[in-house]
Amino acid sequence: MSPRFAAFVQRIAHEAGGDPWALHWDARNARARGEDVIVLSVGDPDLNTPPAVIEAAVAAMRGGDTHYTESAGRPKLRAAVAALHTQRTGQAARAENAIVLGGCQNGLFVSSMLLAGPGDEVIALDPMYATYPATIRASGATLVSVEAPAANGFHPDLAALEAAITPRTRAIFLATPNNPTGVVFSEADVDGIAALARRHGLWVVSDEVYAGIAEGGRVPSLALRLPSQVLTLGSLSKTHAMTGWRAGWIVGPEDFIAHAEQLALNMLYGLPGFVQEAAQKALEIASEAETTVRAYCGLRRERLYRALDGLPGVRAVWPDAGMFMLLDVRATGLSAGEFVRGLYQAERVSLLDGAAFGRATDGFVRACFAAEEVELDEAARRIRRYAASLGAR
Ligand SMILES: Cc1ncc(COP(=O)(O)O)c(C=O)c1O
C-alpha cells in the first residue's frame, strides 16, 4: 500500500482547467534557450537591485552574518518597516507591529493560516492575484470571491461585498494597487470596506506590495481607518527590483504579530541575516528606489498604452499604478485564453490569460510593461500584427 498525502495537498492544487502559468513557463524556457520570445507574462521588473543593497548583503556575508536570526526579524529592521508604514499610511506603528517574512507572498500565507480555518469563509476581491485561491484555501477555509466588476472600473462593488458576508466570514483579502488591473482603491472604496469590516468584525488583509509605485508612493489606507483589524502587507520585490531576495512584511496589531512570530519560528526560522541587512539598506534608500521604479513604470505604461491605441478588437485599460496593463480582447471574438495562445504561437509574445485572476477579468489579458523599451515596442508591434490578422480572418 502506498503512503498517502495529506488532504492539504488538494487545497493548494491548481484549480480545474489547468495551470494558467503553463504558457508563461514555456515562454521563459524558450527564451532561456535563446529563442526569439518576448515574455510579458510576469511582474519581475527588468531592473537591477540597487548596488548599495547588494553591497550591504555582500558585506554582511563577508562579515559572517550567515547564522540563525530572530524569527520575526531583527528589531532594527522591524522598526524600519514600521517607520515606512507610518510614512505611507499615516498610521502610528512600532517594531512590535511588524514582522519580516519571505516576501509578501509569505505574508499572505501566514495571514491566511492565522485568520481562518475549516468551516470559515474568507472573501477575496476578484480579480485577485493568482496565488490567492490556494493561499486562502490552505487554511481549510472556503474562498468566497466577490467581483470588483469590469463595468465598475474594477473597483469594489460594496453592495455585493456586504451581501457575501455571512456569520462564517472571517476576513477580506484585497490588493491595492491591484494586480492585474492596476486599480488603486479610492478613499470612498476603502471607507466602505473599512465600515463593513468594522460592522461585521472582520479582518482585512490589504496587500500593498505595489503601494510604493503608486503616485506619491502611497494609496488610501485601510489600516489608518481600522488599525485593530487591518494587516498591511508589503515587500521590496517591486519597489526595489528585489523579487529574488524574498524580503517582505506584515504590519498589524501586536497580538497578530506575536502569533505570526510563532508561525514563522516553526515555518521559516528567520530570514537570512545578510538578506535582512540588505533590506535595511533598501529601506534607507526607499524614497530614491521608489522614485526610480515609479519613473521606470510610468514611462513604460505610457509607451505601451500609446503603442496599443486604436487596435482592432483590443482595448488597453489604463492602470492607476503598478506594472501591468489589461487588454480587453472581448471584441476579437476570441476568449482570452485563445488570444494568448494564438499570440504566442503566431508572434512569440507571452501574455497572461485574465482567467488566472478570476471571473471579473474574463475576456481580458494581462501584459507586464516593466520591460526594456525596445522589447516593449517590439511586443506592441507583434500584438498589433496579431490583432490585425484576427480582423482579416
Ligand atoms: C498582488 C501581489 N501580491 C503579492 C505578490 C508577491 O510578492 P512578493 O515577491 O513580495 O512575495 C505579488 C507578486 O507579483 C503580487 O502581484
Summarize the structure in words.
It is built from 14 helices and 13 strands. The strands form 3 sheets. A 7-stranded mixed beta sheet has the order 2-8-7-6-5-3-4, sandwiched between helices. The chain has 393 residues and is α/β, with parallel strands linked by helices. The model has no long low-confidence stretch (mean pLDDT 95). The chain has 2 domains: 142 residues, Aspartate Aminotransferase, domain 1, CATH 3.90.1150.10; 234 residues, Aspartate Aminotransferase, domain 2 (3-Layer(aba) Sandwich), CATH 3.40.640. Helix 3 runs antiparallel to helix 11, helix 4 runs parallel beside helix 11 and helix 13 packs across helix 14. It is globular, with a radius of gyration of 21 Å. The site of pyridoxal-5'-phosphate (PLP) has 13 residues, from helix 5.
Write a short abstract of this structure.
This protein is α/β, with parallel strands linked by helices.
Secondary structure tally, helices: 14
Low-pLDDT parts are none
Task: Give the CATH architecture of the largest domain.
Answer: 3-Layer(aba) Sandwich
Q: Order of strands in the sheet with the most strands?
A: 2-8-7-6-5-3-4
Question: What's the SSE pattern?
Answer: HHEHHEHEHEHEHEHEEHHHEEHEEEH
DSSP strand (E) fraction?
5-15%
- Helix proportion range: 40-55%
CATH topology of the largest domain: Aspartate Aminotransferase, domain 2
